[in-house]
Amino acid sequence: MLKRIAIYCIACLSVVFLVLGYFWLKEWPERAKASSELKAFLAEETAQKTALESLGDVSLDLSDLSLARLEQKLHSPPLRLPGAQNTTRLGWACGGQRCAIWMSFLVPFGQDIAPTATPAALVVTHPLFADFNHVVVGGAYVGETVEEMKKFCKQRGYGLPVGKNRISWDKDWSLVWVDTNGKISLLVFANEKMIRDTAARGDGNSTDAVGVRKRMAR
Q1: Are 122 and 138 in contact (CB under 8 A)?
Q2: Domain ranges of the chain
């Protein structure tokens, strides 16, 4: 009797292991793909961290933000990509195609950007493993609290809400942010004056300028 029970238990366990093994093998390609994507993501984050730290502490002034000034502080951009609405995106502190600093210029991709050109938008984030406040823009930095940022902006006479997580930064620029638990994880500055002036001229870049504003508002 005991022998029969033991044989029955072994048979049941064998069936269980066979079923588990089947599903494990069936899901292996998906697990391998997820593992590969995670490794690639972590490698890019580490490369971003290294590139960002190599720049040292960076302070950017929105009132004096030409391409020449950017290259003086950040060196030549390692990444140049086509942006939406016929613009060009330049990236610094990059890992793969992920960068901690992005600038968008109202210049079609492939054309030269004048050294005196000012970006239509500036995006600052930080790699997963990097320390905060490596990059400060007019006193704002990723990692500070939303309340600190708003207080600082209001002290300068600005900070008027103009949308969800969007305020006036100064007379020319607006700021959009993303926060996690009250701490800023992404800063996006839009050159509102450039966007207004370009749209008012109605030249070939007017649609591009309006597109930048719409993306900022989302």
Answers
A1: no
A2: 52-217
- Residue 90: beta bridge partners? 80, 103
| 30-69 per-position pLDDT tens digit | 655 556 555 665 677 777 788 788 888 889 999 889 999 9
Mean pLDDT computed over 20-37 = 57
Query: What secondary structure does DSSP assign to 176-191, as a single string?
Result: EEEEETTEEEEEEEEE
Angle subtended at Cα 163 by Cα 161 and Cα 169, rounded to the nearest 5 degrees: 45
Apex 71 CA angle, 97 and 67, nearest 5: 90
Q: What is the mean pLDDT of residues 150-166?
A: 86
Contact present, 127 and 48 (Cβ < 8 Å): yes
Which among 65, 101, 109 has a CA at the least distance from the CA of 83?
Answer: 109
- Residue from 116, 114, 115, 118 nearest 103 by CA: 118
Alpha helices in the chain (DSSP H): 2-54, 67-74, 146-155, 192-201, 206-217
Report yes or no: 105 and 112 within 8 Å, Cβ to Cβ.
no
Closest residue by Cα to residue 215 from 90, 140, 104? 104
Q: Which residue has the tokens 């030409």?
A: 66
